[in-house]
Amino acid sequence: MKTYLPKIDTQRRAWRVIDANGAVLGRLAVQVADALRGKDKPVFAPHLDAGDFVVVINAEKVVLTGRKESQKEYMSYSGWKGGERYRKVADVRAAHPERLLMHAVKGMLPKNRLGDRLLTKLKVYAGGEHPHDAQQPATTAYKG
Predict the structure, then answer these.
(1) pLDDT tens-digit series, residues 63-89
(2) Which of 15, 24, 96, 134 registers the highest number of CB atoms within 10 A of its CB?
(3) Strand positions, DSSP E, the chain
(4) Domains and CATH numbers, the chain
(5) pLDDT tens digits, residue range 6-51?
(6) Cα angle vertex 58, ends 64, 75, to 5°?
(7) What pTM was computed for the model?
(8) Average pLDDT over residues 106-118
(9) How far apart are CA 55 and CA 97, in angstroms?
(10) Dihedral sign from CA coordinates of 45, 48, 52, 58
(11) Could you tell me the maximum CA-CA distance found in the chain, to the nearest angstrom?
(12) How far is CA 65 from the centre of its chain?
């Protein structure tokens, strides 16, 4: 059996804008990851980049359910002894609110070179403005 190879036109990738105002973080991240991979298109193949560019605005207004705002922590490790750092969601939101969504989406993408390439097509902005008007992005509604 041969591997299905769809024809993917990389020159005509669509641009989508998603407003994260009031959206639940995990549910929004699933929709963004699916759009980046192209899972909502008929030409989807798991080993190819068939997705669109995604621009997320109002990332600072994303919502976490339950007690995650005060209890969830993000860990980073520098590689040195004692180099573990834990940050609460509230601290990350105060400094870089777009990183909440970037971290969630990155965890839903493949852990290889394809996943790295897909993540470059994600543009996240804390406020309501974005510099991608020249690409004529289509507004996509959040289905949460």
Answers:
(1) 999 999 999 999 999 999 999 999 999
(2) 15
(3) 15-19, 53-57, 73-77, 84-88, 122-124, 138-140
(4) 12-140 (3.90.1180.10)
(5) 888 877 889 999 999 999 999 999 999 999 999 998 888 899 999 9
(6) 45
(7) 0.92
(8) 97
(9) 15
(10) positive
(11) 52
(12) 18
Cα dihedral value 33, 23, 96, 67, nearest 10: -110
End-to-end CA distance of the chain: 38
CA distance 111 to 105: 12
Distance separating alpha carbons of residues 73 and 86, to the nearest angstrom: 6
Among 142, 144, 141, 59, smallest CA distance to 98 is for: 59
Q: Left (φ > 0), alpha (ψ -120 to 50) or beta: where does 6 sit?
A: beta
